[in-house]
Amino acid sequence: MSFASVYPLYIQKAERKGRTKEEVDTVIFWLTGYDAKTLQQQIDRKSDFETFFAEAPELNPNVSKITGMICGYRIEEIEDELMRKVRYMDKLIDELAKGRAMEKILRK
């Protein structure tokens, strides 16, 4: 599945709850180390999630603080590394859509 196909869904989910595209981008930047230019390059290339995460500049060192349930799975128990990274992203977007403060989403 391409990241480019899911990215607009992340934005729609956040916007339905009164959040912004900029906040979605902030969460993605925090998690992956991408910036606006490199994120757009991934979208333009229609990178799949495996490539998206493999080429990420740096996964945030605080990802281990992202815990809990997402899609019926406990994040910290997901063994497949790629699936765990995808679920980290899903969890952060869910927290954004649920109105959680950005400071808490970014584990500050």
Protein model, in words:
- By secondary structure, this protein is mainly α.
- The protein has a single domain, classed as uncharacterized protein sp1917 domain (Helicase, Ruva Protein, domain 3), CATH 1.10.8.290.
- The chain is built from six helices and two strands, in the order ααααββαα.
- A two-stranded antiparallel sheet has the order 1-2.
- α1 runs parallel beside α5 and α2 runs antiparallel to α5.
- The protein is globular.
- The N and C termini lie far apart (31 Å).
- The model has no long low-confidence stretch (mean pLDDT 95).
Percentage of helical residues? Answer: 55-70%
Uncertain residue ranges: none
Q: CATH homologous superfamily, by name?
A: uncharacterized protein sp1917 domain
Q: What shape does the CA trace take?
A: globular
Largest sheet: 2 strands, antiparallel
Structural class: mainly alpha
User: What is the tally of helical segments?
Assistant: 6
CATH class: Mainly Alpha
Give the CA-CA distance, first to last residue.
Answer: 31 Å
What topology, given as strand order, has the largest sheet? 1-2
Order of helices and strands: HHHHEEHH
Which CATH architecture?
Orthogonal Bundle
How many β-strand runs? 2
Question: Radius of gyration from the CA trace?
Answer: 13 Å
User: How many structural domains can be distinguished in the coordinates?
Assistant: 1
Overall pLDDT level: 95
CATH topology title: Helicase, Ruva Protein, domain 3
User: Beta-strand percentage?
Assistant: under 5%
